Amino acid sequence: MNVEGTTVLVTGASGGIGAEFARRFARRGAARVVLVARSEDKLDALAAELKGTTEAIPIVADLGVPGGAQRLVADVRTRGLRIDTLVNNAGSGSYGDFAGLAPERIGAEMQLNVVSLVELTRLFLPELVESGRGAVVNIASITAYLPMSGMAVYGATKAFVLSFTEAIWHELRKTGVTVLAVSPGPTTSDFHRVADAPENGNFETPQQVVDTAFRALEGSRRPPSVVSGRTTRFQSRVIGLVPRRTRITLGARAMAS
Ligand SMILES: NC(=O)c1ccc[n+]([C@@H]2O[C@H](COP(=O)([O-])OP(=O)(O)OC[C@H]3O[C@@H](n4cnc5c(N)ncnc54)[C@H](OP(=O)(O)O)[C@@H]3O)[C@@H](O)[C@H]2O)c1
Q: What are the residue boundaries of the Ketoreductase domain, all occurrences included (predicted)?
């Protein structure tokens, strides 16, 4: 995949993995990188950092509310932009027993992680196909591979992202659009603080996650999905081999340990 001269839109670009994707696409020669999130100050700071490397265009949008994806697409159109690569990275989780989670928080999480991701993919798809070198990169998680007692809704949203992305990878394989699901394991970012979640496991950096994604995007194999990090990749394979009841126990242990 050659992104030189293209326009890339990254959701959740105000920090963590999304900001690193934006930096990497800029360094790889993207002509324009559209930075989307709610925190205007952080988007402006990243746009200033990228000045001279690419044209960085911050757009403030809340993708956790109904209509958020449609409003973002309208904003992109008003600015006369056409997107070649869409990185659906914005996502959040909530730690705790399902029964204790606020219903509004659950709704916003599903809207952000699932509904907006699907809507943005569908709404931008015609121009990605027309581009001739379009790409969709969706950020899933190791939690897509097993039920996560303690983060039940989050894990289920990421299982959706993985399943959805692999299915459209097959549907779009003859269109020239590259499709990839990236599943990070624990990664240093604001994610755990926002989710009120304990910081368990071997942490990767956002740079390492983006390295994994670019190896897949730039290699010849064009996989439908990749898991980032040796330990996390090993875990994802083992999970596939054990009975479902054991998977549930493993998920619960991973959250509690
Ligand atoms: N960190 C991990 O351990 C880990 C592991 C596996 C998968 N992931 C996934 O990786 C992706 C990136 O997460 P991260 O680790 O980089 O966490 P992060 O630092 O918390 O970044 C999340 C990004 O999403 C944006 N966002 C949150 N709510 C939003 C909303 N309603 N509308 C628009 N943007 C919103 C945030 O920006 P604003 O707050 O400014 O809106 C931020 O830019 C997520 O999909 C996450 O599920 C993370």
A: 6-185
Tell how far the Cα of 191 is from the centroid of ligand 1, in angstroms.
6
Give the pLDDT score at 145.
Answer: 97
Nearest alpha carbon to residue 69 among 102, 116, 18: 116
Tell me the C-alpha distance between 257 and 13, whole Å.
30
What angle do helix axes 40-50 and 16-27 make, rounded to 10 degrees?
20
DSSP symbol at 13: T
Adjacency order of strands within the sheet including 55-60: 55-60, 32-37, 7-11, 85-88, 135-139, 178-183, 225-227
Phi and psi angles of residue 27, each rounded to the nearest 5 degrees, phi first: -65, -30
* Residue 192 pLDDT exceeds 80: yes
Q: How far apart are CA 95 and CA 92, in angstroms?
A: 10
Annotated catalytic sites, by residue? Answer: 154
State which CATH number among 3.40.30.10, 3.40.50.720, 3.40.50.280, 3.10.20.310 fits the domain covering 7-256: 3.40.50.720
pLDDT at 175: 96
Beta bridge partners of 7: 32
Question: What is the distance in A from the centroid of ligand 1 to the CA of 66?
Answer: 18
Q: What angle do CA 132, 120, 217 make, to 5 degrees?
A: 45
Ligand 1 in contact with 63 (CB < 6 A)?
yes
| 183 backbone dihedrals φ, ψ, rounded to 5° | -115, 100
